[in-house]
Write a structure and sequence with these properties.
The structure is a single chain. By secondary structure, the chain is α/β, with parallel strands linked by helices. Helix content is about 35%, strand content about 15%. The protein has 3 domains: about 130 residues, Rossmann fold, CATH 3.40.50.11980; about 80 residues, no CATH class; about 100 residues. The chain is built from 15 helices and 14 strands. The strands form 4 sheets. Strands 3-2-1-4-5 form a 5-stranded parallel β-sheet, sandwiched between helices. β9 and β10 form a beta hairpin. It is globular.
Length: about 400
C-alpha cells in the first residue's frame, strides 16, 4: 500500500515544537517492515539547516531504499495540502493524527477518505519511546492500482535509413518490417505466477527475507520482462489478490521454498520439478497409488494435525461455545452442541510448517477425512470431530 506520511505531525508527536527526527525514522522502520511503500512529506527547511528537526542524519541513507520516496514541500507552503493531494493521486493512505477538517470543502467527495474522525484512508498512531504504534483498530483498505498519466506529446525516435539505391519491392518490405516492429512493440509480456517465479530465480539473490524479496520484486520483473510495474500491478495481473507475500511465495514450491526455522522467514531456491520418466508414461494405464494416498502419509498427516491442535490449545489461541447448554438444565433431552473455534490461517501456517502441505488447497472431502480421523482435541480423547465449517478466518469444529 502507498502510505503518505505527515512528517511534521509524526516528528512532533508527544514532544515540543522542535520535534524529533528519531520518531519519523521509527515510523518508516515499522511501516517498511509491513511491506508498504512510504512517501514522507516534510517541509524543506525541516530536512536540513538551522531549523531542521533534531536527529535527521539518517535521511540520506534511507533515500537509497527503493520503497522510500521523500517529498519536500517548498518553504512557505501548506504541507497538508501536498499530503492530501499526493494521497489522492496515489490512491493511498495518510499516516497522521491531523483530522484535516479545514480541507474538507476543497477535497469534495475525497474528504470522506481523508478528513474527519471517521476517515477511511487515514491511519492514526501513537509513539511509545522509540516505538511507532499504528492504530490497531485501523482496517487497511484494499490497494488500488494507480494509472500513470499518458504523455501530453508522443515522442518517437526517427529511424535512420540506410544509404544506397532502393531495391525493387522495397516499399512493401519496409511496410512489413514496420508492421513487425509495431506488433513487437505492442506485444507486452504478460505477468503470471510462473513468470514471477522465473524472475525471482533468475535475478533474485536468494536466500533473502520475504520482506526484502517483495520490495525488490518490481526490479526483478523489469530485468526479466522489460516492464516497469508496481507491486500492486504485479498482484493484479498475476492474480495474487490480497494474499500475503509469504503465502504467495509459499505457493511457488518446490522451485522456491520458505525456511521458517528462524525468527524471520527466509526465501530460498528449492528443487526443480522432476521430469516424468518413460517408464511412468508406459505405466499410465496401470493401477498406481499416489504418494499422498499411501497409508503412511495419511498417518503422518493425521498425527501432524493432531500436534498442531494440541500446540494451539497450549497457546490458548482457541475458544469454546455451546448451543442448547442453558436449555439442557431445564429440558434434559435437549442436545448440547459443543464447538471449538480456531484461527484458520494459524492452523494452516503451523500445518504447512510441519508437513509442507497447504490445507487451504485441500478439497473439502479430503480435509473432512483428515480432520475426522483425529480425536476431539480437548479432554481424554473420547470425543471425535463430527463436522467442520470454515467461515472467513475461523475454523469451527463440532464435537460428537
Amino acid at each position: 500500500m502507498n502510505l503518505v506520511l505527515d512528517g511534521a505531525n509524526i516528528a512532533r508527536q508527544g514532544v515540543d515544537s522542535s520535534g524529533n527526527g528519531t520518531q519519523l525514522r521509527a515510523a518508516l522502520d515499522r511501516l517498511l517492515a509491513d511491506d508498504h511503500t512510504v512517501y514522507p512529506v516534510i517541509a524543506q527547511f525541516r530536512m536540513s539547516g538551522k531549523r531542521a528537526f533534531p536527529n535527521m542524519e539518517w535521511v540520506n541513507e534511507y533515500r537509497e531504499h527503493p520503497s522510500v520516496h521523500f517529498v519536500q514541500s517548498p518553504s512557505g507552503t501548506d504541507d497538508d495540502a501536498f499530503i492530501l493531494d499526493l494521497a489522492i493521486q496515489l490512491k493511498g493512505v495518510i499516516v497522521s493524527n491531523d483530522l484535516f477538517r479545514d480541507h474538507k470543502e476543497r477535497l469534495g467527495k475525497d474528504s470522506v477518505r481523508y478528513c474527519g474522525s471517521k476517515a477511511t484512508h487515514r491511519m492514526m498512531y501513537s509513539i511509545a519511546g522509540e516505538l511507532f504504534l499504528p492504530d490497531p483498530k485501523f482496517k487497511m483498505p484494499v490497494e488500488e492500482a494507480v494509472e500513470a498519466l499518458p504523455p501530453a506529446v508522443e515522442f518517437t525516435t526517427p529511424v535512420k535509413e540506410k544509404k544506397g539505391s532502393p531495391k525493387q519491392g522495397s516499399g512493401s518490405s519496409k511496410s512489413r518490417s514496420s508492421n513487425r516492429q509495431s506488433a513487437k512493440k505492442n506485444r507486452s509480456h504478460r505477468i503470471s505466477s510462473a513468470s514471477v517465479r522465473s524472475s525471482i530465480l533468475q535475478h533474485g539473490d536468494l536466500p533473502m527475507s520475504v520482506q526484502k524479496l517483495s520490495t525488490y520484486l518490481p526490479k526483478m520483473i523489469e530485468k526479466a520482462t522489460g516492464r516497469k510495474m508496481s507491486k500492486a500491478e504485479i498482484r493484479s495481473e498475476a492474480g495474487f489478490g490480497n494474499r500475503s507475500w509469504i503465502e504467495i511465495f509459499s505457493g511457488m514450491s518446490p522451485e522456491i521454498v520458505i525456511d521458517r526455522s528462524g525468527e524471520t522467514p527466509i526465501v530460498k531456491a528449492g528443487t526443480m520439478k522432476a521430469k516424468k520418466s518413460g517408464s511412468s508414461n508406459r505405466n499410465r494405464g496401470g493401477n498406481r497409488k499416489s504418494v499422498g494416498d499411501s497409508e503412511s502419509d495419511r498417518v503422518r498427516n493425521r498425527d501432524a494435525l493432531s500436534i498442531v491442535f494440541n500446540e494451539i490449545i497450549e497457546d490458548g489461541r482457541y475458544r469454546l461455545d455451546s448451543k442448547g447448554g442453558l436449555m439442557s438444565r431445564f429440558v434434559p433431552w435437549v442436545k448440547v452442541e459443543e464447538r471449538m473455534i480456531l484461527s484458520w490461517s494459524y492452523v494452516c501456517q503451523k500445518y504447512l510448517k510441519r508437513t509442507n502441505v497447504r490445507l487451504a488447497r485441500m478439497n473439502s472431502a479430503d480435509f473432512f477425512e483428515l480432520i475426522s480421523s483425529i480425536p476431539w482435541p480437548l479432554g481424554n480423547g473420547t470425543g471425535k470431530i463430527i463436522r467442520h465449517h470454515i467461515d472467513e478466518n475461523e475454523l469451527i469444529l463440532w464435537r460428537g
